[in-house]
Specification:
The chain has about 600 residues and is mainly alpha-helical. About 55% of the residues lie in helices and about 5% in strands. It has a 3-stranded mixed sheet with strand order 1-2-3. α12 packs across α13 (about 305-320), α16 (about 360-375) runs antiparallel to α17 (about 380-395) and α18 (about 405-415) packs across α23. The N and C termini lie far apart (about 80 Å). It comes from Cloeon dipterum. One of its GO terms (cellular component) is RQC complex. InterPro entries: TCF25/Rqc1 (IPR006994). This is Transcription factor 25.
C-alpha cells in the first residue's frame, strides 16, 4: 500500500507542509467557533476498498496536486501584506509537492529496476514445447530414480539368503585389509590394491533445465597409459594387455578387455572381479554432484572417455543378473538408461523388462510402457509387447486390474509378433497344439516371413525370457489366448492386417547400431550379432564395441582386426590369473 493511500486512510487529504503556527491556531479557533465546539467530522472511507486501489501514476499525482495548489482568486479589499504571505506559503507548498513527486518518481524507477532484474533471472516465458519437454524430463526422472541400497548385490543376497550366511561367506574370502573406500555400486575386495590417483576425473559441464551434464576426463599420465594399452590390443598379444593391468591395476579399458578374455575361458568369477574393479575406478572419480539415484545426470556417449561407464555397468548388471540378483540388475539397468535416455546407446529397453518381471516390479513395468509408448513405440518391440502382457496378468491375479486387460494385451502381442510363439514353446519344452502348428499364422510360415531384423529380436527375447513362461499359471493363459487369436484371424479381424503392415514397415533394412551394440555386449550364443559393413569401420572391441559415427575421439582406435581363439580354456585362464596381482594358486577358478 502506498503512502498516499495510508494518508487517505488516516484522514489526511493533503500534503503535510510547514505553516505559520499563529495562522494554524487562528484557523483552529475559527473551526471551533463555526462548529459550536463539535468534533471534527471524520472522513467516511472504506479501509478495505483502499487495498484494491492501484497506486496513481506520476501524471495523476501531479494533476491532483496542481488542482489542490491552484491559487484562489483574490477577494476584494484584501490586505497586500496578506497577499504576500499567501504567495510565500504557496511557493513553499509547491516546493514540497515537487519534492514528493521526485521521491515518487525515484520509487517508480526503483520498482521498475527490480522488475527488470527479476525478469532477467527468470528468463523469457517458456513456450508450450519447452513446457512439454520439461514435463517429459520430469516423468523420466521419476521413472528412472532409484534407491542406492538396491545398487549393491550384497544387499539383495542378504535379503534372499540371510545376513549371517552372506557375512560368513565374506569372512571366508577375506584375507588382508587394504582399507578401500566403499562406494554405492561396488563393494571393494580386500585383495584389491589401494587405488590412489589413477588419472581419471569427472567434470561438470552444464545444466539443461532439470538435467545435469557431466563428462570424464583423462590427465596426461592416463592418456600415456591408454595409448600403451591400445598398442597392446593392436599387437594381438594378451600378455601385453595383462602387463598394463600389472603396472596400472585400475586402468579401466584394460580391465574390461581382460575380463572378456576370462569370460571366454569360462572363468566367470575372475571376469566379474575385473569388471567390478573397473567400475570401482570409474565410481571413485565421480563428481560430487553426480548422483545416479536421481535419474537426471547425463553423460554423452559420443565422447570416447564416457563410454567406459556405460560398458562397465552393462557387463556388471549382466553378471549380477546371472547371480539371481534381479532387483539389483533392474536398478543398474535404470542407471544405464538414465545416463542417456533419449538415444539409449546400449538399447537397455531390450533387457530392462526381463529384470522388472524377475524382480516382480509389475506396476513399474506397465507404467514405463504406458508413459513411453507415445514417444518410443515400445509396443513395437517383441520383448515389451509380451513382457507387459505378463506383467498385466500378474496384476490381474493380484486384483489390481481386470483379467480382460491382460488378455487384450497378450492377444495384441500374439497378433503383432506371431513368430514368437513357436520358438518360445519349444524352448519351454511344451508340445504345441497340432491345430496351432497347422495354421499358417503361427506355423512355419510365421518364422520364414519375418524380416531379419525382427527375427534377431525374437531370438533375443526367447533366449532371455523363456524361464518367465515356465510358471504353471502362465501356460494355460497363453494357450487360451492363442486360440482366441486364431478365431480372430479366421474371422478376418482388421487388426491382423494392420499389424502385418506395421511389421513390414518398421523392420525394413538393418537394425540400428545401438541394438547391434547391445547384442554384441550380451554375448548370447543363441543370438549372433549381424554386423553390417556400415556399422563398423574397424575391429569390434569388447571395451568399446561399435562406436557411434559422430564419436568424439581422444585416442586413435586399433586398425588391425582382433582374432581370438581359445584352444585350452583352463590353461589360458590359469595363465591370465597368474599374471594378475591378486593371483592365488589355492583359489578355485570358478
Amino acid at each position: 500500500m502506498s503512502s498516499r493511500v495510508l494518508r487517505k486512510l488516516q484522514g489526511d487529504t493533503g500534503l503535510r507542509v510547514d505553516s505559520d503556527p499563529e495562522k494554524d491556531a487562528e484557523d483552529d479557533l475559527l473551526s471551533v467557533a463555526a462548529g459550536g465546539g463539535a468534533k471534527k467530522k471524520q472522513l467516511n472511507v472504506n479501509r478495505y476498498d483502499l487495498l484494491n486501489q492501484q497506486s496513481l501514476s506520476e501524471s495523476e499525482v501531479k494533476e491532483d496536486d496542481d488542482n489542490e495548489t491552484e491559487p484562489t482568486q483574490d477577494q476584494d479589499g484584501a490586505d497586500p501584506a496578506d497577499k504576500g504571505a499567501k504567495r510565500k506559503k504557496k511557493k513553499k507548498k509547491k516546493k514540497a509537492v515537487k519534492a514528493a513527486l521526485a521521491q515518487r518518481s525515484s520509487e517508480d524507477n526503483f520498482d521498475g529496476d527490480e522488475i527488470d532484474q527479476v525478469n532477467r533471472l527468470l528468463g523469457p516465458v517458456a513456450s508450450a514445447e519447452s513446457v512439454q519437454h520439461a514435463a517429459e524430463v520430469q516423468r523420466t526422472k521419476e521413472l528412472l530414480s532409484i534407491d542406492n541400497r538396491n545398487l549393491n548385490p550384497n544387499n539383495e543376497l542378504k535379503r534372499i539368503f540371510g545376513v549371517k550366511i552372506v557375512q560368513s561367506e565374506q569372512r571366508k574370502k577375506s584375507r588382508t585389509r587394504t582399507h578401500l573406500r566403499n562406494t554405492g555400486i561396488v563393494t571393494p575386495k580386500d585383495t584389491w590394491p589401494i587405488i590412489g590417483k589413477q588419472g581419471i576425473t569427472m567434470r561438470y559441464c552444464e545444466q539443461k533445465g532439470q538435467v545435469q551434464v557431466f563428462s570424464y576426463e583423462h590427465n596426461s599420465d592416463y592418456q600415456l597409459v591408454q595409448r600403451i594399452f591400445l598398442q597392446a590390443v593392436e599387437s594381438l598379444n594378451p600378455d601385453n594387455v595383462v602387463a598394463v593391468i600389472h603396472s596400472h591395476p585400475y586402468h579401466v579399458d584394460a580391465l574390461l578387455q581382460v575380463a572378456e578374455l576370462c569370460k571366454m575361458s569360462e572363468d566367470l568369477q575372475m571376469a566379474a572381479d575385473l569388471v567390478e574393479r573397473a567400475l570401482y575406478a570409474l565410481e571413485h572419480a565421480f563428481h560430487p554432484l553426480f548422483n545416479l539415484a536421481q535419474g537426471n545426470c547425463r553423460l554423452d556417449y559420443c565422447r570416447q572417455e564416457n563410454r567406459a561407464l556405460f560398458i562397465a555397468l552393462f557387463k556388471h548388471l549382466t553378471m549380477v543378473g546371472q547371480r539371481a540378483c534381479h532387483r539389483t540388475a533392474l536398478e543398474l539397468s535404470k542407471v544405464v538408461l538414465s545416463l542417456d535416455p533419449d538415444d539409449d546407446p546400449l538399447a537397455m529397453v531390450l533387457v530392462i523388462d526381463l529384470y522388472a518381471l524377475r524382480s516382480r516390479q509389475y506396476s513399474w513395468l506397465v507404467r514405463l510402457a504406458d508413459e513411453w509408448e507415445a514417444s518410443r513405440n515400445l509396443s513395437q518391440l517383441p520383448n515389451f509387447a509380451y513382457s507387459t502382457a505378463v506383467a498385466r496378468f500378474h496384476l490381474a491375479v493380484q486384483g489390481a486390474i481386470e483379467m480382460a486387460d491382460a488378455d487384450a494385451s497378450l492377444q495384441l502381442a500374439l497378433i503383432m509378433f506371431p513368430g514368437v510363439l513357436s520358438p518360445l514353446l519349444e524352448k519351454c519344452s511344451v508340445q504345441v497344439d497340432h491345430k496351432v502348428l497347422a495354421h499358417d499364422f503361427f506355423g512355419p510360415k510365421a518364422q520364414t516371413s519375418m524380416p531379419p531384423a525382427l527375427a534377431q529380436l525374437v531370438q533375443l527375447y526367447v533366449a532371455r525370457c523363456w524361464p518367465v513362461w515356465k510358471e504353471a499359471e502362465l501356460l494355460p493363459w497363453l494357450e487360451r489366448n492363442t486360440h482366441a487369436v486364431l478365431a480372430r484371424v479366421d474371422s478376418k479381424d482388421p487388426l491382423v492386417s494392420e499389424c502385418d503392415g506395421h511389421r513390414r514397415r518398421r523392420y525394413q533394412g538393418a537394425p540400428p547400431k545401438n541394438i547391434t551394440r547391445h547384442i554384441v555386449l550380451a554375448d548370447l550364443k543363441e543370438v549372433p550379432p549381424a554386423i553390417s559393413p556400415g556399422d563398423s569401420t574397424g575391429p569390434v572391441m569388447s571395451f568399446d564395441p561399435l562406436p557411434p559415427a559422430d564419436s568424439i575421439n581422444l585416442y586413435e582406435r586399433p586398425r588391425r582386426p582382433r582374432t581370438a581363439t581359445v584352444d585350452n580354456a583352463g590353461a589360458l585362464s590359469l595363465f591370465f590369473r597368474s599374471l594378475l596381482p591378486t593371483y592365488n594358486a589355492n583359489e578355485p577358478p570358478g
